[in-house]
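Hey all, quick one. A colleague (J.T.) asked me to put the EPZ job into the tracker so the inputs and the structure tokens live in one place instead of scattered across chat threads. No bug as far as I know, just bookkeeping. Sequence used:
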Amino acid sequence: MQKIVVEGGATLNGEVRISGAKNAVLPILCATLLADEPVEITNVPRLHDVATTVKLLSELGAGISTDEHYSITVDPRSVHSQVASYELVKTMRASVLVLGPLLAKYGHAEVSLPGGCAIGSRPVDLHIKGLQSLGADITVENGYIKARAKRLKGARHVFEIVSVGATENVLMAAALAEGRSVLENAAMEPEIVDLAECLIAMGAQIEGAGTNRIIVHGVERLHGGTHAVVPDRIETGTFLVAAAMTGGRITTTHARPDTLDAVVDKLKEAGAELDCDGDRITLDMHGRRPRAVNVTTAPHPAFPTDMQAQFMAMNCIADGVAVMNETIFENRFMHVNELMRLGADIRVDGHTAVVRGVQQLGGAPVMATDLRASASLILAGLVAQGETTIDRIYHLDRGYENIEAKLGGLGANIRRIR
Ligand code: EPZ
């Protein structure tokens, strides 16, 4: 099993290029199933989850080709199966995002229930209810979601709670439904906007993506097109936190500053100086120790749950006490026990963690439990005295492209051992 070893103490400086967003490219790859012609996706990050999604599309029969820049062209004309198997779906929850497209395009789909994951049970009831609003007949049998619909009909649907994935599944299905759909209490994440822009490039008629009310005028068919994936705001935030923790000065390039306002505001509150200029964000900590910052996660545009673990790592060595509330997932503090192995002072009570900043963490062997927890352990290793070894880093490779090369390029002392 591969591990990452970090020698703490380096101050990060320099430039780092941001990759396309994992949480945009996954639904966008699924959306290509809706088209009648090939769709080219560019600025695709080299991630394990992308490879898993490509494998799923291939299993459904779609033609896949990639170029030297890892742009991916999906040709859905050869799709011959509408079944997403448990073997594949159990490895990546986002596979459930083929449900809406397959149902809307072929009138039926069978997708394995994704099962839970480390950070929570993560049901898909909101996906199912949304598709039922569009007229789908859905049963859950033997661990599979079985959906049928002669032709989906546009409808008004109110999501009981804000759900990124459910919004994406229903938005994709509504694109080919007959008539107008209004999706209320929709998720407003930038990845939803990016998915909508890709669908519009394929001929969909969508207004309001990025607000909590999305209007879709269904069309008969969607044609091919090309779309560049939006830069990854969570990768961007992760590197900015790394610079803030080490007192350094970095610039993230090929980023989208307007997609991470809440994170930028919190970094300023922690004492960082930030300058956003086009697709570049520069953070300068001037060698200072970060101040502790309180964090409450909530749907976009509020503070993203995917940045909670990284900010906890920063609060572990910050000046002061921070209160952190995780309101989205029921079990997203798995990194706490591992951070405490490095000497962090954290008290968890339900959805709240109280973090008392310490002067110095000490390197130790730790274990990654989920994607963003892995990132927080690497960040902590950057400032811990001595060596920190992070095990089970397959979690990390799901969502960060070449993280050790990118951090190494900023001066971190980090290596992967086989
Ligand atoms: C997406 O997950 C992201 N994943 C997650 O990123 C992100 O943390 C999450 O949105 C919230 O922003 C992808 O986009 C691939 P939700 P998703 O549906 O769609 C509950 C990462 O680290 N819920 O918005 O699964 C759910 O349990 C990953 O990159 C239901 O109850 O999240 C959670 O408590 C982690 N029923 C809340 O809603 C449903 O049918 C929000 O989940 C669906 C969700």
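Adding what we noticed when we looked at it: The mean pLDDT is 97. The CA atoms of residues 21 and 134 lie 29 Å apart.
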